[in-house]
Write a structure and sequence with these properties.
The chain is an alpha/beta fold and 237 residues long. Helix content is 38%, strand content 17%. α2 links the parallel β2 and β3. α5 runs parallel beside α8.
Amino acid sequence: MNYDLTIVVPVFNEEDNLDRVYNELQQFITNADVTAKVLFINDGSKDGSLTKIKGICDRSDRFRYCSFDRNYGLSTAIKAGFDYSDTPWIGYIDADLQTSPMDFNILLEHRNEYDLITGVRTNRKDSFTKNMSSLIANGIRRAFTHDGMDDTGCPLKIIRADFAKRIPMFNGLHRFLPAMILLQKGKILQVPVRHFPRMAGKSKYHLWNRLFGPLMDCFAYLWMKKKYINYKVEERN
């Protein structure tokens, strides 16, 4: 089958969420506006996540996995998802399911006009500290990148694969995906999506990596922007 969309799901110690992940992604695949498949990236989980992932992949050929030898972090997991996807579009969702796979259909409505479509979480179900640190971090990032995005941390995105594969990833760059598409002269859009409380597992983020870490990453992005190489081939033989 020729697939249109690969949904990348980074996993780090999410054993208790994976049955729900399978069920909800299977529901999306059945009702999707495009032909879709799923690629789990096991980021060195120490619990039973890999065993669960293998069981899911045995149940359906729409599910595949790639497993790291150790924990490398979210940016690396997303890059691996980009590297090992072979479809025109690549989606991304977190294994905590605080966003719904069904909302990929909302993003897909705009795929003919844009190269990256990202969700904006409405009525967020996070703590006051998490919401405020995210608000501040997004404000700082916008000041550096001028990407106009209100919620780059939203774990629900689709990206045209040829753009995604040209992004020179570094740790922390997952927060700057819209800005990196703009560097390629691509078009980006944000649309509202639903947000839900975490039902199982533990958040991997705290004040440092939600606020101070992204501030340092902004300087890395400015260096990247200054050095970024972008070209378009007019013809070749």
